[in-house]
Hints:
A: 7-stranded mixed β-sheet; 4-stranded antiparallel β-sheet; 11 strands; B: mainly beta; 6-stranded mixed β-sheet
Amino acid sequence: EAQVTQNPRYLITVTGKKLTVTCSQNMNHEYMSWYRQDPGLGLRQIYYSMNVEVTDKGDVPEGYKVSRKEKRNFPLILESPSPNQTSLYFCASSRNPGQSYYEQYFGPGTRLTVT
Amino acid sequence: AQSVTQPDIHITVSEGASLELRCNYSYGATPYLFWYVQSPGQGLQLLLKYFSGDTLVQGIKGFEAEFKRSQSSFNLRKPSVHWSDAAEYFCAVVSGRAGNTGKLIFGQGTTLQVKP
C-alpha cells in the first residue's frame, strides 16, 4: 500500500530536549516536505526536499532542521524545542513538482506538545 | 503575496442538504488547485484537484468543485451531505509553472458540522 508514515504519532516533551520526528514514504517520490498545522493558520511549510541531499527552507523554518540522506526518509529535527513549537506536524511526498499533474500525499500527522 | 482565503471558518448544515464551501486564491501564475479533507484525528486526504481543462472537476465521496478564473475562486460543492462528511476542509494552491518549489499554500480551513 502506497503511504507516508510518521513516528511518533504523539509526543510530549520538555523545553530544550532534542527530538526527531521520522517520515518515510514507499512511493519512490523525489519530493518531500514538512508542514505544521496551527488553529486558524492552516498548514505552513517548514522545509522541503527536491531530492536526496537537496533541501531548502519553507515559510517557517526557524528552530527546525532536516536531512535527506535516503530518498524514502525525511526526518524533522528539533534541536532545542520550545513551547511555540507545540503543533500538529505533517510530512508529505510527491513526484517532482516540476512535472505536471502531481499531487502530494500526506502522512497521518504527529502531535507534538512542548512543556 | 500568494494567498488562499476560506471565508467561512465554521459551517453547519443539515444532513441531506446541499453544501458549498468557498475558496478564493490570489496567485499570479497558473494555479494548481486542491481540496483536502481532514477528519478528526486523521491526516489530510485529497478530495479533488484542478490543473487545467474542464473547470468543473469531480472528486471522491461525491464532491465536485468549479474553477472560476474571473473570480479567482475554487468552491467545493456536494448536493447532499452525509453525517460522515463532518470534518475540516482545506483549499490549497501551488504554482503550475515548471521549476516550482512544490509548496502548497493552504487556506485557514472550514470546519463542517452536520446536523441530524
